[in-house]
Structure formats: structure tokens, C-alpha cells
TrEMBL record:
Function field: Cell wall formation. Catalyzes the addition of glutamate to the nucleotide precursor UDP-N-acetylmuramoyl-L-alanine (UMA).
Binding site for ATP: G121, T122, N123, G124, K125, S126, T127
Organism this protein belongs to: Phyllobacterium leguminum
Cellular localisation: Cytoplasm
Annotated SUPFAM superfamilies: MurD-like peptide ligases, catalytic domain, MurD-like peptide ligases, peptide-binding domain, NAD(P)-binding Rossmann-fold domains
Superkingdom: Bacteria
Protein name: UDP-N-acetylmuramoylalanine--D-glutamate ligase
Length: 461
């Protein structure tokens, strides 16, 4: 645990008592501060009480006693309207921060030279974060992985010069971290997302920009207009910028040339690494993730050979283009995280001969935007509520059956793929739908896919 010594002897209000909220409250107490915590959910308050955290309705508190207010990133700060606690804190003139800000202050106080890589963007954050952590760990360095990827940042080991912090940051977390100052900050891309919480696309982009603006080295994907503008603006302000692109040839930066990842600058171009044969990093989107990881690892002192070795051994992230198994010549890939058509497109673009398992609770627009990939589909196996709608969209563009369940879809797809004459047919779960018609979440859906694959014959994994 990282004790919040920067708050020592102060009194702190905290709202939001999920897992990270309880961990944050414990970090505040461990640092010698007093905390008063609350949540709108009585069950969360009970859990906090059981953990020894003082609780009390913040409506009844004297806010003159509080030096800081720590807010859970899941609670609205600005849109669609500020949470009631935010209104009270602002009226009392109390600063509003989150756990990432607490981490930043502790690092600055005790080990400002400890390497700190922070990752944000609309898409690819978790894969890039996991990839960087894997590369650092495989180079025999002490890596501390946390943030939005699922481990509360204040539960990591205390900052030290020999520890490498790799932290995924959502826009909500950045909005509560005014002092964020990574050694290397990554902004992968920007597309409309979470606008219910940020109001406008420009406000969303402005929040994301803060992470790279505060970094020693700003690594920015420049394949969308918002990020390209941010890179130009930071460069004019004198920041150290590394541009990355999965589509453009850059005169100065890192870019993809097919599976080859290149570095250019000073009139020279060199190949850093090839992703050829690295199944966990297939596709244009993973080229961008790998470029960002390479740039960040170089920025914190890793060597090119260490990075190459780490890339080659990366196993991938669960439910995101995860290679589950091979059965004979058939590759089974779990992309359950693809909960809409845009998210399914990268997987469909990564394989030539696909036995596609799709469906679930349909999203607006369905799969019409994926029609350019229909020629790659050997057959589709449709599940869940979306099956009739997806069947109508596929029409005569690709063969399909309505399988109903993942178990049936895997069984039929495995049988058909095994009879295919191509060298490596792929059974791909990339549903382009939410999971809630049949599963609690996309993780449970992915686990059901894995279980069904493991029940299919035997072969080499």
C-alpha cells in the first residue's frame, strides 16, 4: 500500500466506497490523516465500516474541517450535472481530487525519479498498459501495474527509484488529477466517448490532453485530428513530443509499415521491430499499441533488444483478441470485449478466413458498418437477441446460421473450420454486441467461449 503521507494530520472527505474507494480511504488513514467517508449505497457504507473506515453523511459534515475531498472517478464531476458532494465541496472551497492525484503527490514527495508511465486514449488503453508492464517485467525490472486497468493505484508498492509505475488513466481519473506528471505520458487516440459525462467532444479532448501536457515526454497518436492538434500544440509549447502513427509515414516519430515498426528522425529511418508472427499483436490497432509501448519504454531507459524480447512474449489481454487455443489447424480467438461494431472491426480486419461468432444484446447501428469485412467471413454463427437482425444484415453476403448459444456456435464453427481447406481458419468470437441478454458481462461471455473451446476435441494449445 502507498500511504498518503502528503495528507498527514489533515482531515479528508471521501465519497465512493467501491473497492478502490476503500483502498484509498485506507491509504489516507495509513498516512496519518483523518477521513470521513460516505456513499449513496448503504451496502458500501457497511463494507467500509467493517473495514474500520469512519463513515458519516457528508451532508451533515462541517466542510470547514476538510483540507481535501477525494471523489471516486465513477461519480459525476461536471456532467450531466455535478454530484451533490461536488456542489458542497466547491461551495466550501475544498479541493476535489482522486486517487491518481494522491499517487502523483506521493511519488513527487518521496521518489520523483521513479519511472512513471501513464496511458490514456479512447481505445487500446488496457492492451497498451498491459503490454508496457509485460515488457518492463520481462526485462527483470520491478513493475507496478494499476489504475483503470483494475488495480487501485494506492494498493501498489510505495514509490522508489527502482520501481516502474505503469498506470492506465481514464478521462474521469485525469479530471481528478490536476498535478499528473508522468515520465512518459501516452495519448493513443480520441473518438467520441463518455460525452454524457463530459458534455462535448472538445471538453473530453481537453481532459485527455492534460495527461500528456504534464509529462516529461509526450507520446501522441496522430491518426485523428484531435490528437494531431494536441501534438502540434504541445510541440509549440516546447514539450518533448514523440508522434506515433499506424497509418502515416512520419518524418519524425514512430510508425507502422505493415508489420514493421519504424523510427524516423534526422533524415534517417530504421526498423525497430517486426510484429510478424506475434499473434497477440495482430492488426493495425495493435500496431499502434506496440508503437506507444516502444516509445514509452525507450523514454524510461529500456533498450531496444529488451523491448523486442518483451513484444515477442506478450500473451495478450484476456477477451481482447485473446488466442485461446489451437485445435489442429484451427485457431480460436476470444474478442468478447468487442461490444459494438467499431470494436469488432479490428479483429475482423486481422484474419482472412473467419468463422465468426456474433450477437448478443444489439447496439444502435447493428453490424451494417462491418459490411466491408463480410467477404472474409466463411460463415457466421449468430447468438442472442441480435441474431435475427444480424441475419437480415448479412443476407446473401455471407453464409450464416442462428446458433442461439455460444456452446452451439463453437461446436458448429469448430466442425466447419476443421473441414476448411485453408492453412489457418479462425473461429472468432467478436460479438459486436453487449452481453447482457445472456451473460452478466463480457468477461463471463469470454469465459463461456473458452470453456466451449476446451470441450472441442484435443490438439496443441
Amino acid at each position: 500500500m502507498i500511504a498518503a503521507h502528503s495528507l498527514k494530520d489533515k482531515t479528508v472527505a471521501l465519497f465512493g466506497l467501491g473497492g478502490s474507494g476503500i483502498a484509498t480511504a485506507q491509504a489516507i488513514m495509513a498516512g496519518g490523516a483523518r477521513v470521513l467517508a460516505w456513499d449513496d449505497n448503504p451496502a458500501s457504507v457497511e463494507r467500509a465500516n467493517a473495514a474500520g473506515i469512519p463513515t458519516g453523511d457528508l451532508r451533515q459534515a462541517d466542510w470547514k474541517d476538510f483540507s481535501s475531498f477525494v471523489l471516486s472517478p465513477g461519480v459525476p464531476l461536471t456532467h450531466p450535472r455535478p454530484h451533490w458532494t461536488v456542489d458542497i465541496a466547491r461551495a466550501a472551497g475544498v479541493e476535489i481530487i482522486g486517487d491518481i492525484e494522491m499517487f502523483v503527490r506521493e511519488r513527487t514527495r518521496s521518489a520523483p525519479d521513479s519511472p512513471f508511465i501513464a496511458i490514456t486514449g479512447t481505445n487500446g488503453k488496457s492492451t497498451t498498459t498491459a503490454l508496457i508492464a509485460h515488457i518492463v517485467k520481462s526485462s527483470d525490472r520491478d513493475v507496478q501495474l494499476g489504475g483503470n486497468i483494475g488495480t487501485a493505484v494506492m494498493t501498489l508498492d510505495p514509490p522508489a527509484r527502482d520501481k516502474y509505475y505503469v498506470v492506465e488513466c481514464s478521462s474521469y481519473q485525469i479530471d481528478l488529477a490536476p498535478s499528473i506528471n508522468p515520465t512518459a505520458g501516452i495519448l493513443l487516440n480520441l473518438t467520441p466517448d463518455h460525452l454524457d459525462r463530459h458534455g462535448t467532444m472538445q471538453h473530453y479532448a481537453d481532459i485527455k490532453e492534460r495527461l500528456v501536457a504534464g509529462s516529461d515526454t509526450a507520446i501522441v497518436g496522430v491518426d485523428d485530428s484531435y490528437c494531431a492538434g494536441i501534438a502540434d500544440r504541445l510541440e509549440r509549447a516546447g514539450k518533448t513530443i514523440i508522434r506515433i502513427s499506424k497509418r502515416q509515414t512520419l518524418a519524425d516519430g514512430l510508425f507502422a509499415n505493415g508489420p514493421k515498426l519504424m523510427r524516423s528522425g534526422g533524415g534517417t529511418v530504421e526498423e525497430l521491430v517486426s510484429l510478424e508472427g506475434i499473434g497477440s499483436l495482430r492488426g493495425e490497432h495493435n500496431a499502434q499499441n506496440a508503437l506507444a509501448a516502444i516509445a514509452a519504454c525507450l523514454a524510461v531507459g529500456l533498450g531496444v533488444e529488451e523491448i523486442r524480447d518483451g513484444l515477442k512474449s506478450f500473451p495478450g489481454l484476456a477477451h481482447r483478441m485473446e488466442q485461446v487455443a489451437r485445435r489442429g489447424k484451427v485457431l480460436f480467438v476470444n474478442d468478447s470485449k468487442a461490444t459494438n461494431a467499431d470494436a469488432a472491426a479490428p479483429a475482423l480486419s486481422s484474419f482472412e478466413r473467419i468463422y465468426w461468432i456474433a450477437g448478443g444484446l444489439p447496439k444502435e447501428g447493428g453490424i451494417a458498418s462491418l459490411s466491408g469485412f463480410f467477404p472474409r467471413i466463411a460463415k457466421a454463427y449468430l447468438i442472442g437477441e441480435a441474431a435475427p437482425q444480424f441475419a437480415a444484415t448479412l443476407g446473401e453476403a455471407a453464409p450464416y446460421e442462428i446458433s442461439g448459444t455460444i456452446a452451439a456456435a463453437v461446436q458448429h464453427a469448430a466442425r466447419d473450420a476443421a473441414e476448411d481447406g485453408v492453412a489457418e481458419p479462425v473461429v472468432l468470437l467478436s460479438p459486436a454486441c453487449a452481453s447482457f441478454d445472456q451473460f452478466q458481462n463480457f468477461e463471463k461471455r469470454g469465459e463461456a467461449f473458452r470453456e466451449a473451446v476446451m470441450a472441442v476435441g484435443t490438439g496443441s494449445d
